[in-house]
Every structure is written in structure tokens, then in C-alpha cells.
Write a structure and sequence with these properties.
By secondary structure, this protein is α/β, with parallel strands linked by helices. A 9-stranded mixed beta sheet has the order 5-4-1-8-9-10-11-12-13, with helices on both faces. The chain has helices at 40-51, 65-76, 140-152, 169-172, 182-189, 196-208, 247-260, 265-279, 292-299; strands at 3-7, 11-17, 31-38, 54-62, 79-87, 93-99, 105-110, 131-134, 156-159, 177-178, 213-217, 223-226, 231-234. It has one domain (3-299): Ribokinase (UDP-N-acetylmuramoyl-L-alanine:D-glutamate ligase). Helix 1 crosses helix 7 (247-260), helix 5 (182-189) crosses helix 6 (196-208) and helix 7 runs antiparallel to helix 8 (265-279). The protein starts with a strand and ends with a helix. The protein binds alpha-D-ribofuranose.
Length: 301
């Protein structure tokens, strides 16, 4: 089993359910209120750990109850948390989440301690293992430094460019596998991945900047893996969504777990779609992630 480092955010998700997401100026009633461990980085690490992978989390929380709860929750999922640092000046990151009747969510992230992670916190010693995975809920300069270091050490780098934002070539040139969703791909390239010609153009542009492969997640339409020469489509499982929070995170965690135990890329993407399919049928971020036994029982793999 290869070792995976996840560099990213830890947030306490403050979640309510609404009939319909309110429009500007509207007040609606929420149904229930839950505090659920989340954060894109922590969700991806928790997926890998819960499935049985070898994973370590690199991030920062505040010296408060949320920070303690998030770290303990990751430990319970067998994630190594020795590189989850504590900020003296900022509270733990939080996310305010509304989930509507269709299972779609609206999220506001308050980064807090996630943005206190500094380039000085990252060293060659911390980045040990085979894979480095990151998202964009920590400062970009940290991703730039750590991806450069990881490539120098021969690690495989995976970037999930979420939440969507533009990226400098100094980051993209060190990315082995970029995993954007449709919105993120459009923002990075100006191209709609549902249009074949535009997809090819966007992929060409990203590859010209140094990224090796691009795996675009297309929600209920599955995913497409592109390397500039070939394009392979993968189907999503058909499920009735209850809450799509962390669907992308469990897809990425599932993918890395399968790759780390030696499965080929195509089989790993198929496995990732199964992990994500279970996640969307349950409420919350880390509360919805599957175990390996659940994936095997549900899909007979
Ligand atoms: O991807 C879902 C996650 O986005 C939530 O858990 C929330 O914390 C935000 O980071």
C-alpha cells in the first residue's frame, strides 16, 4: 500500500436543510442544524483512511474545540494527523452549508486557520511517501512550494482545483493529475468540457502548461480522462441524491485509495465513482463517506 499525503483544509461544517436555496433578499426556514466534520482536504484524507489506505493529513486548525474534534475525527478514520498544526491566532475553519430538496448544496467557507498554514510549515521531511494531493482551500504559495518539492522527490502530484480559481503555470507545470469539475475546468481554460472541440482545446492548453493528465468530473454524467492524445469516458452510478456534499472529495479519495493499492488508472476511476455514489445517498461530508466493506457489498466488487 503506497503512502498518500493530503495537503488541505479542515473545516467544521455547519449544515441545515432547506426546501429551496434562498435567492438574494429572501429568508427561508431551515430544517435542523448539524455540525459535521468537513473541509475538502480532510474529506479526501478521511475517505482514504476509512477505505483502509495509508494517509497523512497536512493542514492547520485553531486551538479550539472544533480543531480538536476535527483532528480526533480524522484519527478515528486512521488518518495520520501528526502534521495537522495549530494556529495561535486564527480559529478553526468553518463552512456554512445549505442543502436543498434536490440534494444540491450552497457553501460559504470561512478559512480561518487553513489560511494560516505557511510555506515555512512545509519541508522535505513532511512530504514522505508516494502521492501528494491538494485542493485550493489553503494559500496557493504553499501548493506551489510543496508540489515542486514533491516532484523533486519523485512523488506523484494530484491537484483538485476547488474552489474554482485561476492557477499560475508555476503550479500547473508540477501537476501529474489535475481533477477539476466542469465549473473549474471552464474557469481554468474558458472551455466547456461538454463540447468535444472545446474539451480538446482546454486539455491542450493545460497540457502545454505542463500538466500531465486531466480527469474532469461531470457529476451524474461520470468523468473523462484526457492526456492530450486519448480521451476515456467513465459512467457514473445511477443513484437518487440526498446530499451531494463531499461527492467530489470521496471520488478523489476513492481514486487515490485504489491507485495506492496498485490498481490501474481505469479501474481506480471506476472504483472512485462507486465511493462517490454512496456518498451522495447520505447526509453530510465525512458522515457520508463509505467503508471498503460498504462499497464491496453495495456494488459486489
Ligand atoms: O467539498 C465539500 C467541502 O467543501 C465541505 O466539507 C466544506 O467544508 C468545504 O470545504
Amino acid at each position: 500500500m503506497k503512502k498518500i499525503n493530503v495537503l488541505g483544509s479542515l473545516n467544521m461544517d455547519l449544515v441545515t436543510c432547506v426546501h429551496m436555496t434562498p435567492v438574494v433578499g429572501e429568508t427561508v426556514l431551515g430544517n435542523g442544524f448539524d455540525k459535521i466534520p468537513g473541509g475538502k482536504g480532510a474529506n479526501q484524507a478521511a475517505t482514504i483512511g476509512r477505505l483502509g489506505g495509508n494517509v497523512s493529513m497536512i493542514g492547520k486548525v485553531g486551538r479550539d474545540d472544533f480543531g480538536t474534534q476535527l483532528t480526533e475525527s480524522l484519527s478515528k478514520d486512521h488518518v495520520d494527523t501528526k502534521h495537522v498544526l495549530k494556529s495561535d491566532s486564527a480559529p478553526t475553519g468553518t463552512a456554512i452549508i445549505m442543502v436543498n430538496d434536490s440534494g444540491d448544496n450552497s457553501i460559504v467557507v470561512i478559512p480561518g486557520a487553513n489560511f494560516e498554514l505557511s510555506v515555512h510549515d512545509i519541508s522535505e521531511q513532511i512530504l514522505e511517501g508516494d502521492y501528494l494531493v491538494a485542493q485550493l482551500e489553503v494559500p496557493l504559495e504553499i501548493i506551489e512550494k510543496s508540489f515542486k518539492m514533491a516532484k523533486g522527490k519523485g512523488m506523484t502530484t494530484v491537484l483538485n482545483p476547488a474552489p474554482a480559481q485561476g492557477l499560475p503555470s508555476s503550479i500547473l507545470e508540477n501537476v501529474d493529475l489535475l481533477i477539476p469539475n466542469e465549473t473549474e475546468f471552464k474557469l481554468l481554460t474558458g472551455c466547456d468540457p461538454k463540447n468535444e472541440r472545446m474539451l480538446d482545446r482546454g486539455v491542450r492548453d493545460l497540457i502545454a502548461l505542463g500538466t500531465q493528465k486531466i480527469l474532469i468530473t461531470l457529476g451524474e454524467h461520470g468523468a473523462v480522462l484526457c492526456d492530450g492524445t486519448t480521451k476515456t469516458y467513465f459512467k457514473a452510478q445511477k443513484v437518487v441524491p440526498v446530499d451531494t456534499t463531499a461527492a467530489g472529495d470521496s471520488f478523489i479519495g476513492g481514486l487515490l485509495f485504489a491507485l495506492s493499492r496498485g490498481e490501474a488508472m481505469d479501474a481506480s476511476i471506476d472504483f472512485a465513482t462507486l465511493a462517490a455514489a454512496i456518498t451522495v445517498t447520505r447526509k453530510g461530508a465525512q458522515s457520508s463517506l463509505p467503508t471498503l466493506a460498504e462499497v464491496q457489498e453495495r456494488f459486489g466488487v
